[in-house]
């Protein structure tokens, strides 16, 4: 589904922020969002529907923190398969009711641990952690494994090794938020060059930049990736700036009115999948879709 949809449309609109939308619906800070796949599936369905109605061609499942290391923070490490399957089942149901072709991307976030030699996680353990989550997502019908918000070569290596064991495409996005680098020092240009050095049949189906510190930085990172990874499908899925605390809650400063310029610059920079991350709403995605329609 993913590759066919990309070939048909040329440029795809991705969804916006699952977490931000859930917080607006009542999720409390510190709660486990993946638990909602079981306890409040209707809430998750509604988030997906809002983004599809806004014009998203693909959306990410509510499984970002669904690996055993992250779930252990809530004492839920024995429910990896349950939460991930449930999240994918919700996604597949929404896609089936969309009235149009929509790809369901299985969100796979970082483990939350540092890898050896800086931290406790070995490469083999990382592959196992990612693989356990991915297996549940693939079995439940993922169109693409969407590995996101990574920051180190060690984690990229473990996640991509795990993903390569499944017969579905996968994407990888990094978060560039420290002087144009990831938290662990990776440059966008290095990430793009890494893609070119892989054998053609072993490359991610897409790669790019997500989250970060705002639209400008994400566009610069995605552009650098595209410049160094000729013919790659490049993703940009930026957050909406650094949030500030106002009126008893967090407010993101970059609103939907900036999405027309963002989408045009993303297209001009070689991006083929354009969406948004933290702080974005269906209004942001609707403006991206409108811009693509008018281009």
Topology:
Layout: H1 2-9, E1 12-13, H2 18-24, H3 36-39, H4 41-54, E2 58-60, H5 68-71, H6 80-96, E3 103-108, H7 123-139, E4 144-150, H8 153-163, E5 170-174, H9 188-197, E6 206-211, H10 215-228, E7 234-238, E8 244-246, E9 249-251, H11 259-268, E10 271-276, H12 282-293
Parallel strand pairs: 1-10, 2-3, 3-4, 4-5, 5-6, 6-7, 7-10
Antiparallel strand pairs: 8-9
Helix pairs in contact: 4-6, 4-12, 6-7, 7-8, 9-10, 11-12
Distance between the termini: 24 Å
Catalogue the unreliable spans. none
- Indicate the mean pLDDT: 95
What fraction strand? 15-25%
Largest sheet: 8 strands, parallel
- Across the major sheet, the strand order is 1-10-7-6-5-4-3-2
SSE-based structural type: alpha/beta
- What is the overall silhouette? globular
Number of helical elements? 12
Helix content: 40-55%
Give the H and E element order. Answer: HEHHHEHHEHEHEHEHEEEHEH
DSSP, total strands: 10
Oligomer: single chain
Radius of gyration: 17 Å
């Amino acid at each position: 589904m993913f590759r066919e949809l990309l070939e048909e449309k040329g440029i795809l609109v991705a969804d916006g922020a699952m977490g931000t939308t859930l917080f607006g619906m009542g999720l409390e800070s510190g709660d486990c969002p993946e638990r909602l796949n079981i306890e409040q599936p209707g809430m998750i369905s509604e988030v997906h529907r809002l983004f599809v109605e806004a014009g998203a061609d693909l959306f990410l499942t509510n499984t970002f923190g669904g690996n055993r290391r992250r779930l252990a923070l809530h004492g839920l490490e024995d429910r990896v398969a349950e939460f991930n399957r449930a999240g994918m089942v919700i996604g597949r149901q929404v896609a089936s009711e969309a009235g149009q072709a929509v790809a369901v991307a299985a969100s796979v976030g970082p483990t939350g641990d540092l890898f050896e030699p800086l931290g406790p996680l070995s490469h083999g353990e990382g592959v196992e952690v990612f693989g356990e989550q991915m297996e549940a997502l693939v079995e439940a019908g993922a169109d693409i494994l969407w590995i996101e918000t990574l920051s180190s070569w060690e984690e990229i290596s473990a996640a991509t090794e795990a993903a390569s064991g499944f017969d579905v495409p996968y994407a990888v996005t990094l978060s560039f938020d420290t002087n144009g680098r990831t938290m662990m020092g990776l440059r966008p240009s290095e990430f793009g060059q890494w893609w070119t050095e892989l054998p053609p049949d072993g490359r991610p189906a897409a790669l790019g930049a997500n989250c970060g510190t705002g639209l400008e930085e994400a566009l610069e990172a995605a552009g650098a990736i595209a410049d160094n990874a000729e013919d790659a499908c490049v993703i940009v899925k930026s957050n909406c700036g650094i949030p500030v605390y106002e009126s008893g809650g967090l407010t993101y400063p970059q609103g939907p009115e900036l999405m027309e310029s963002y989408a045009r610059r993303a297209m001009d920079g070689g991006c083929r999948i354009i969406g948004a991350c933290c702080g974005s709403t269906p209004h942001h995605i609707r403006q991206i879709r409108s811009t693509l329609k008018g281009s």
